[in-house]
């Protein structure tokens, strides 16, 4: 359907009715044709009033007494007593108001329309070595899809070859293009801004993240908030009361016009629309920013949150350990292999002492399967240290560390107990340095070559750069306490707390402990939002008043089950979600006040005299439009930017994921070079 056809579809009834009113006025005022004028005016009332009467009849059959019934009774009564102008004016204005209301409500649903618009129609797949264009829904899981510059990604998948920059705003709300390389995830509906990608299809058609988001936003915008359900209940008894009041006034005053006017003026149209339009606009604004809110009820509850509980690993931190410290305490002064070490570290961008400590640690960890081996190896590679690809012999010592033999040397990486076991005397103060790093919340490891301690290295889970700003903004938005709930050790948790500014730390927790803390906070009268990754935090997320899932773009479960899903790992989306929820609830209250004040003033004007049926309907429709316009202000973003920390300028942002190790190593190399 073309734009003009859609416009005509929405406006044909008020246009025809308005034309008949104009014809009636012309016939009586210019040609003095009273009969023609009366027929045209009655026709205007019938054209505009018939759809209203049909809706009123259908509602009555369902035992629902609504606004349409009030207008229908008033219009029919006005025609019966010969008040054709009043009948035509009331129905015409009601039809105009309905058309404007539909148009503006469609505007508030613009986020959903934009999401649907970005859904790709076609895909280019590689079949038997030939590029074939097929419908996007026709791509099979496992097929290779080609994404060229300017094209939309038609599937959810994983990059298997090529590089490129994708605009992921439609999925995550990220404002800058994100660089993609082999191993990175891509999402349907994102747009290539350069490069060429080969993508293995993982999710297609209705199984894509974009399709799930569209489905969830549709459901959320239609879901009723608690306030909306109250308004529905209010209208159910309010309308019969207005009809009864009109009958009583009509009998008492013997003034049928007054009774009919009361029916029209008493229409609570602005009141009924006040909540839904605000919910639709609020959820639509959130969706544009990469915040998926499950429905109006959760939007309302989010506005009441007083305490935010956050998981540490994967939320305040990246969930990936990185090398943070290299402390030089000595040098392996043995001739054997010295030239090999010198050659290996000569290309390093950091000083010789640190290079050597990192060289020996990487050489030992090259054969280790321990999770802490990866950040050490990544940092060494990023610093340009050519450590052996594999140690000659690697042995794990449970609870103490590892012993490796490489290049004719024995290398120990572990704690003080490991040194004691191999009779290595700590003359350089490694135990003290290790204790200091541990107190700072890092995992420290002593490095010894043969019988000499050469240094201490430390790793830690990297704190997200926007974590402290998130906490600050939560406090600024009215959150009383931000509490960290973590299963990690107290020293580590305290270090993260100091860096981020959280108000309270609960450490060494099991999932059931987190659940108990949420229950405790709720008993104290707090409305609790729990933020986590949805795995070990699942019980607490389910019990909290609002469960918030981080980075939900890659998780179908999170999109479907979380009360609020933050589609990217941008922590600043959390305070934005709460701020938007409070704006939305405040807008609801404003709309209710506007609607109630309008009805009270109009009813008073009718009783005291001076407010006619047509004038009352005009004011009533204006109040409806004011309520809608007030809600539409939610579609505009306010306050601080919600771009991830460091996302300034126009350079594509590097994706986090399988290829993130080099990025971590770069940061370590920069820190070590200071």
Automatic annotation (TrEMBL):
<dbReference type="Pfam" id="PF00702">
    <property type="entry name" value="Hydrolase"/>
</dbReference>
<feature type="transmembrane region" description="Helical">
    <location>
        <begin position="234"/>
        <end position="252"/>
    </location>
</feature>
<feature type="transmembrane region" description="Helical">
    <location>
        <begin position="258"/>
        <end position="284"/>
    </location>
</feature>
<feature type="transmembrane region" description="Helical">
    <location>
        <begin position="39"/>
        <end position="57"/>
    </location>
</feature>
<dbReference type="InterPro" id="IPR059000">
    <property type="entry name" value="ATPase_P-type_domA"/>
</dbReference>
<dbReference type="GO" id="GO:0006825">
    <property type="term" value="P:copper ion transport"/>
</dbReference>
<keyword id="KW-0472">Membrane</keyword>
<dbReference type="InterPro" id="IPR051014">
    <property type="entry name" value="Cation_Transport_ATPase_IB"/>
</dbReference>
<feature type="compositionally biased region" description="Low complexity">
    <location>
        <begin position="645"/>
        <end position="663"/>
    </location>
</feature>
<dbReference type="GO" id="GO:0015086">
    <property type="term" value="F:cadmium ion transmembrane transporter activity"/>
</dbReference>
<feature type="transmembrane region" description="Helical">
    <location>
        <begin position="592"/>
        <end position="611"/>
    </location>
</feature>
<keyword id="KW-0186">Copper</keyword>
<feature type="transmembrane region" description="Helical">
    <location>
        <begin position="64"/>
        <end position="81"/>
    </location>
</feature>
<dbReference type="InterPro" id="IPR023214">
    <property type="entry name" value="HAD_sf"/>
</dbReference>
<dbReference type="InterPro" id="IPR036412">
    <property type="entry name" value="HAD-like_sf"/>
</dbReference>
<dbReference type="GO" id="GO:0046872">
    <property type="term" value="F:metal ion binding"/>
</dbReference>
<dbReference type="InterPro" id="IPR008250">
    <property type="entry name" value="ATPase_P-typ_transduc_dom_A_sf"/>
</dbReference>
<keyword id="KW-0813">Transport</keyword>
<keyword id="KW-1278">Translocase</keyword>
<keyword id="KW-1003">Cell membrane</keyword>
<keyword id="KW-0479">Metal-binding</keyword>
<dbReference type="GO" id="GO:0005524">
    <property type="term" value="F:ATP binding"/>
</dbReference>
<dbReference type="InterPro" id="IPR023298">
    <property type="entry name" value="ATPase_P-typ_TM_dom_sf"/>
</dbReference>
<dbReference type="InterPro" id="IPR044492">
    <property type="entry name" value="P_typ_ATPase_HD_dom"/>
</dbReference>
<keyword id="KW-0547">Nucleotide-binding</keyword>
<keyword id="KW-0406">Ion transport</keyword>
<dbReference type="GO" id="GO:0016887">
    <property type="term" value="F:ATP hydrolysis activity"/>
</dbReference>
<keyword id="KW-0812">Transmembrane</keyword>
<dbReference type="InterPro" id="IPR018303">
    <property type="entry name" value="ATPase_P-typ_P_site"/>
</dbReference>
<keyword id="KW-1133">Transmembrane helix</keyword>
<dbReference type="InterPro" id="IPR023299">
    <property type="entry name" value="ATPase_P-typ_cyto_dom_N"/>
</dbReference>
<dbReference type="InterPro" id="IPR027256">
    <property type="entry name" value="P-typ_ATPase_IB"/>
</dbReference>
<protein>
    <submittedName>
        <fullName>Cd2+/Zn2+-exporting ATPase</fullName>
    </submittedName>
</protein>
<dbReference type="GO" id="GO:0019829">
    <property type="term" value="F:ATPase-coupled monoatomic cation transmembrane transporter activity"/>
</dbReference>
<feature type="region of interest" description="Disordered">
    <location>
        <begin position="645"/>
        <end position="665"/>
    </location>
</feature>
<comment type="similarity">
    <text>Belongs to the cation transport ATPase (P-type) (TC 3.A.3) family. Type IB subfamily.</text>
</comment>
<dbReference type="InterPro" id="IPR001757">
    <property type="entry name" value="P_typ_ATPase"/>
</dbReference>
<dbReference type="Pfam" id="PF00122">
    <property type="entry name" value="E1-E2_ATPase"/>
</dbReference>
<keyword id="KW-0187">Copper transport</keyword>
<dbReference type="GO" id="GO:0005886">
    <property type="term" value="C:plasma membrane"/>
</dbReference>
<feature type="domain" description="P-type ATPase A">
    <location>
        <begin position="119"/>
        <end position="218"/>
    </location>
</feature>
<keyword id="KW-0067">ATP-binding</keyword>
